[in-house]
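ok trying again, last paste got cut off:
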Amino acid sequence: MKSSSLKTLRAFAALAALTIVTFSAQAQTGAARTGYAKANGISYYYEISGKGEPLLLLHGGLGSTDMFKPIMPAFTEHRQVIAVDLLGHGRTELGSRKINLPEIAADIALVLKQLGYKNLDVMGYSFGGGVAFRLAVQHPEMVRRLALVSAGFASEGFYAEMREQQKQMNAGFAEQMKQTPMYTAYAAVAPKPDDFPRLLQAMGDLMREQYDYSADVKKLAMPTMLIFGDSDMYRPEHIVEFYKLLGGGLRDAGWNRETMSKNRLAIIPDQTHYDIFFSPKLVATALPFLDGVSGSKSWAEVSQP
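nice, full thing came through this time. structure:
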């Protein structure tokens, strides 16, 4: 096997191992309401837990809602969380469609409407961040606040070597990956475990596509937060460009924050693409924004007697 292919396998296996850890590390804090909702021929699995303002969580590629188990209690403590297994992932069937971000976003909009949600906050990680982005672009009326975690706006945002590794993914990896925790996790809940090679092929096809959503970034009218690890798979230049397209980082905020952008950028230290999704730092970073609150004060406020 080529060294680049081995690196790709190791990268996905590492992510899968983390997924297994997150699933077993979380003690259940209460029964979630689970079920399936049909959208464009696909039965999407969902879990609803907690009480409060609704928050949609969308997981990363080759994972499932279980990826968020370690940090879920921090969200469900005062938010109602809707977590959905995306097309071909977790407990949701793969079907015969290709994996396409705009189409999956359209599906998620239908799922939310069936569940009775007209407007809610959304946080998506990696692959789920891409779906969250498309949901906000295609159905802006449904998204109140948007948090995108380790998700870029264009395929050129990745480091070149990572992009090449992504392109190597295909069905041919299935046999080798049956020895990894990733396959074990997938087979434990998938409606059709034998679909694993097709899932790898479909995700590889998605990652081989060239895309650039820069024009759509400017359509995001809702408050948006970008969150990345300081050792993420995206180039720093891409991260900064993303924030600038949102209207951030274009000028000084002013002494009293009077010209500050409504959108936010967070670079979390000591985090990578493969561990940011279960980090307590992610909760501490995203939750205040999603709640619409700020812990910061202006110089004038703190200097008052």
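cool. The radius of gyration is 19 Å. Residues 10 and 39 are 34 Å apart (CA to CA).
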